[in-house]
Design goal:
This protein is an alpha+beta fold. The chain has four domains: about 260 residues, Orthogonal Bundle (Neutral Protease, domain 2); about 200 residues, tricorn interacting facor f3 domain (Immunoglobulin-like, Sandwich); about 100 residues, Immunoglobulin-like, CATH 2.60.40; about 80 residues, Macroglobulin (MG2) domain (Immunoglobulin-like, Sandwich), CATH 2.60.40.1930. It is built from nine helices and 34 strands. The strands form nine sheets. A seven-stranded mixed β-sheet has the order 4-7-2-1-10-13-12, with no helix packed on it. Helix 2 crosses helix 3, helix 4 packs across helix 6 and helix 6 crosses helix 7. The chain is elongated.
């Protein structure tokens, strides 16, 4: 799922194609101010039952706004005998009656947003139980907008839609409110005014003209589905169909339901990219998981997108958001996070998949630009990717943590494993018989990665998924000529600032030694807070890069503290990082000797904005944090003066 809440200006080379879609990037989700239901959530549903099937048979009117109908649920006892069960449904919806096993009217109560049902006897785990709940009312709207009566075309046409993730399903239908229990299949029957179309999961098996200016749409989903992925999108849609030809003789419809006033040739060209994306992801992850049904989009009135199974609900159609929601069909829909603590298995994977598509169509340079951009947000993540608090929707869907850092962790795992083993891990995980069409947690994905690679990855997952923050390195290097051999001994000292959990980060790190006759890449395994590595190269070094291909989320991407052959420090002002930035950035510099130093920030007209350093400093590496909270968006400059040395660089503030 993607959120369209904060517009950012991108300066990357691929902005026109992808980063305009990044309007849905957010750090603080302003829309959460309307949340009121979280204190009433009964999570994780009735753990004593196992839901097998949902059927929603609903009548929906928009004048007045109203829902009535029946929801059929088939379930079994999860482990031992039961004589009662409960389902989640908000109190504002009224229950008329309940039918048990087609013939019994059981006793029930509806309070605290739960339907407590007394069964007519004790049932064992080998028995199926069916109930039909007849209910009516005006559905609630919480979270991202679990059930919305809205309009389009300047308010002239109705648009009705649902978005239940994470806790909104019980706003509009009775369910077991947990992602851990996927139904084996589902049906959605929906009756509306005949000028409207109803879009839902799976295949449209029948459209019935009821003869009273109403039409019933019958949708059938034959794959396992999480309750929050059951969806409705209702409007006077224009229907545009393309096809994904996944073999020489087979194809699957790709159906787009668009507001008529929004459809044009430019949008059609953008929608047609979905077929290309289906091919890219099928190659990388295995064939599209719901190949016997469909994929498509239903336009709706929310600013982002939601990965409803087989038909993503979309507020915009840029390449980034389309590829994100499509990849969720593998990671989120086919394999669903077993609990919201592991939401990164949905959102981190989908965010990374945006980069997979970029790499497939634009190449590795643009992929790395994309990852660098995501690292900017990932550095702002607070706490572990594995969520400690799922009571807040804002916590679950924090972009920096669940999306960006989750994606960057996959990028780093790719660096650890190498391309072949990494993509083999993704495909094996996506097609694993225990997780495919089921649920998973982080440890399941870790097990697959370890089995494929043959590596012990405890250190990696412990620090990046269950730990917090990222490494902050201080690198020093130097070299000396070997007498008479023409070779040079290189020394690299890697020091990490103390972190809380973990105390320091263990990672394989690439080091690039630049020499007059070419570059040498050396891989080291940094598993100590302070560690020294020694190498011999065959030509005189003239440069050094730490993590040259940006495989690690750290404080500055590339850190260089350059020494001369005589081990004398040289004057160096580094580019601030991140850049562009909001609200803070880091400026690093190296002084060859102790002297009076000034570090001043100027605006584009040359006016002094801030004096960050003004006094004597010792030789060595220095770091200064700069906060731009009081500045407007724009270009600024920072100048370092130390004795006779001068250096100036440009920085960009974004809002």
């Amino acid at each position: 799922m993607k959120c369209l809440l904060l517009i950012l200006v991108s300066v990357s080379l691929f902005a026109q194609e992808f980063n305009f879609d990044k309007e849905y990037i957010f750090n603080e989700l302003k829309g959460y101010q309307k949340l009121s239901k979280l204190s009433k959530v009964q999570y994780p549903g009735d753990q004593s039952i196992d839901v097998k099937y949902y059927k929603l048979d609903l009548n929906i009117t928009n004048n007045p706004n109203y829902l009535s109908g029946a929801v059929s649920i088939i379930f079994t006892p999860a482990t031992s005998n039961i004589n009662s069960a409960f389902f989640d449904l908000q109190n504002n919806l009224q229950i008329d009656s309940i039918l048990l096993n087609q013939s019994v009217n059981p006793a029930f109560t509806h309070s605290s947003n739960k339907i407590n049902i007394s069964l007519d006897r004790s049932y064992s785990s080998s028995e199926q139980i069916s109930i039909i709940i007849y209910y009516r009312g005006v559905p609630g709207s919480s979270g991202f907008g679990s059930f919305e009566f809205s309009t389009h075309n300047n308010g002239t046409q109705p648009a009705i839609w649902t978005l239940s993730e994470p806790y909104g399903a019980s706003d509009w239908f009775p369910c077991k409110d947990t992602p851990a229990d996927k139904a084996d299949s589902s049906d959605v029957y929906c009756t509306v005014n005949s000028n409207l179309k109803v879009v839902s999961n799976g295949l449209l098996i029948e459209v019935v003209d009821n003869g009273n200016n109403t039409t019933t749409y019958k949708w059938k989903n034959s794959y396992p589905i999480a309750h929050y992925l059951i969806s409705l999108a209702i409007a006077n849609y224009f229907e545009y169909t393309n096809y994904f030809k996944y073999s020489p003789t087979d194809s699957m419809p790709v159906v787009h339901y668009i507001y008529p006033e929004k459809f044009n040739s430019q949008l059609q060209q953008q929608l047609d990219k979905t077929v290309e994306m289906l091919q890219v992801f099928s190659d990388k992850f295995g064939l599209y998981p719901f190949i016997n049904e469909k994929y498509g989009h239903a336009q709706f009135g929310w600013g982002g997108g939601m990965e409803h199974q087989t038909v993503a609900s979309m507020g915009s159609f840029g390449s980034g958001i389309v590829s994100h929601e499509l990849s969720h069909q593998w990671f989120g829909d086919m394999i669903t996070c077993r609990d919201w603590q592991n939401i990164w298995l949905n959102e981190g994977f989908a965010t990374y998949s945006e980069g997979v598509y970029i790499e497939a169509v634009q190449g590795s340079t643009q992929y790395l630009n994309y990852i660098t951009n995501e690292m900017t947000y990932a550095r702002q993540a607070v706490g572990s990717i594995y969520l400690q608090d799922i009571s807040s929707v804002g916590s679950i869907f924090n972009y920096s943590r669940s999306y960006a850092k989750g994606a960057v962790v996959l990028h780093m795992l790719r660096g650890v494993l190498g391309d072949s083993l990494f993509f083999s891990t993704l495909k094996t995980y996506a097609n694993h018989p225990e997780y495919k069409n089921a649920t998973a947690i982080t440890e399941n994905f870790k097990d697959v990665a370890e089995n494929i690679s043959g590596q012990d990855l405890d250190y990696f997952f412990n620090e990046w998924i269950y730990g917090a923050n990222y490494p902050k390195y201080n690198i020093q290097w130097g070299y000396k000529a070997q007498s008479g051999s023409g070779k040079f001994d290189v020394t690299v000292n890697i020091n990490q600032q103390v972190n809380n959990d973990p105390p320091f980060f263990t990672m394989p790190i690439e080091l690039k030694i630049k020499t007059v006759s070419g570059d040498t890449i050396i891989s080291v395994f940094n598993d100590q807070q302070q560690q020294t590595f020694n190498f011999t190269v065959n030509a005189q070094p003239n440069g050094f890069q730490f993590d040259p291909d940006n495989w690690i989320l750290d404080d500055a991407g590339i850190v260089m503290d350059v020494y001369t052959e005589n081990n004398q420090l040289s004057f160096l002002l580094e580019q601030n990082y991140p850049n562009p930035f909001n609200p803070s950035t880091v400026i690093k510099y190296t002084l060859p000797k102790s002297e009076f130093v000034t570090l001043i920030v100027y605006d584009i007209l040359g006016n002094e904005i801030a004096r960050l350093v003004n006094g004597n400093q010792n030789s060595g590496a220095h770091t200064v944090n700069f906060n731009s909270s009081d500045l407007t968006s724009g270009i600024y400059f920072y100048q370092l003066k130390a004795g006779e040395n001068r250096s100036m660089k440009k920085m960009i503030v974004i809002r």
